[in-house]
Amino acid sequence: MTTTPVWSVDPRTGKQREQVAVEATPHEVDEAVRAAHAARGALADAAARAAFLRTAATLLDEAAAHVIEAADAETALGPGRLTGELARTTGQLRAFADAVDEGAYLDIRIDRADPSLSPPRPELRRYKVPLGVVAVYAASNFPLAFSVPGGDTASALAAGCPVVVKAHPDHPATSELCASLLRRAAVASGLPAEVVSVVHGFDAGLGLIRHPLVAAAGFTGSIRGGRALFDAAAARPVPIPFHGELGSLNPVVVTPAAAAERAEEIGTGLAGSVTLGVGQFCVKPGLVLVPEGADGDRLTGALTKALGETEPGVLLDHRMRENFVAGVRERAALPGVAAPVTPGSGGDHTVGAGYLTVPAGLLAGNAENAGNTEGTDVHSYGVLLEECFGPVTVVVRYADQREAAAVLDRLSGNLSATLQLSAAETEGAPGPASELISQVTGLAGRIVVNGWPTGVAVAPAQHHGGPYPAATSHSTSVGGTAIERWLRPVAYQSVPDALLPAELREANPLGLPRRVTGG
């Protein structure tokens, strides 16, 4: 049988570094899923799961220098960025271990029998059980936090679900290294190594989503790739939940009062958010509504200056560079669209010190065209309202709130929406600011005021998701409630105590939090 090699590639030069693995055959995918399925019983031990997650975090921290070196060689994201990402990754693992210990994620509810009610209520006890094997599709832009040891994997393991990860082709060596550390942690915690495994290859990814023993999937990536997997998950003889994060424009609205108050500060801050990670964050602000007039001019001037002074950066791979340059060129060619700072100009990428780089950029249009829902230009201008992955943003100038609202009305679902408000507007008096909050709440999963969407805190109240195509479900992929994606509720009615799961027994032998109704 012919094998297809999996190469680690240096994105700075486009050259192959080393062969890491070979693409998984259908038989190997089947073996990985079946081994994971067989390991489900071992993960039922909550104490072992928590110990596993903490040990994995410790091993990743101990191997930090090696992990960061491997990830930087494959992504060009830099040691500084990757050091922070590794800390976030190990923090997630420990946070989910704490959640397992606490047990609140089981959402235990007990309704005691009450024959006096009409109709009478029987004894009911409810909690949540793991779904089974979870397929995780790793992200390109976060080789740690959204890949093999990332949030999807950590939350699924915390729920008691074994994981098979389809590694991203942009960082296969990092994926193999992290997988080996997770498997070592499993064995050290008394669990089978097979609770985590990795497969490589496009066909392996399709085989994984179609495997009858896979019970759910998590994905972070493009709309095109995510939608294909989403459709495959739905087309199975037994459909499964597909929790995908697919794409987001992350609009920013600057009010006239905010522009008058701090135009330069907003412009400079926006440039920093747009170029963070070379514009390769899923929450990068890709559309900014700026008021017409002198204050808006000051803001766009500061933004233009800051973007022009930003050093060119390396994108994750050659395909992303090509898509970025083509996407910017398409948008810049539209009538009425200006390019005060032109990224990716020319047929080739900027070459410096032997590296393939792209500069940051800015495109500018007006709300009359971007918000148009009629006429011949609506389809061509619609591309301005689509994500362009990389260090570029689109500034749309608006004359009044009606024009700004018309543009927002044309947007599909987003991970985030940001409002830049004046000090007076944040005091909460009824007016345009409260109307904006209401409008953007309908199109985004996280609303930011006087900050920037890049930087998604891993916290219990966090929500990283949004209406389609930002996500394919209403769940979050970041924060403590991400565990809920891999669980389903079961109610036990009038079941004798001795036959109940330990989590639901009257004596509460595991000491779990529970909500009890009735005497």
Q: Tell me the major beta sheet.
A: 7 strands, mixed
Strand content: 15-25%
The beta-strand count equals 20
- Outline the low-pLDDT stretches: 345-353, 375-379
Order of strands side by side in the largest beta sheet?
12-15-16-11-10-17-18
Structural class: alpha/beta
Number of helices, where a helix is a run of at least 4 consecutive DSSP H or I residues: 15
How far from one another are the termini? 66 Å
Q: What helical percentage do the residues reach? A: 25-40%
Rounded to an integer, what's the Rg over CA atoms? 25 Å
Give the rounded overall mean pLDDT.
93
Task: Describe the protein.
With 519 residues, the chain is of the alpha/beta class. The protein has 15 helices and 20 strands. The chain has helices spanning 26-38, 46-62, 64-75, 79-102, 151-159, 172-188, 202-210, 223-235, 256-275, 294-308, 318-332, 367-370, 378-381, 401-409, 432-441, and strands at 5-10, 15-22, 108-111, 124-130, 133-137, 163-166, 196-199, 214-220, 242-245, 251-254, 287-291, 338-341, 350-352, 355-357, 361-366, 392-398, 414-420, 444-449, 487-493, 514-517. It has a seven-stranded mixed beta sheet, with helices on both faces. A five-stranded parallel beta sheet has the order 7-6-5-8-9, sandwiched between helices. The model is unreliable at 345-353 and 375-379 (pLDDT under 50).
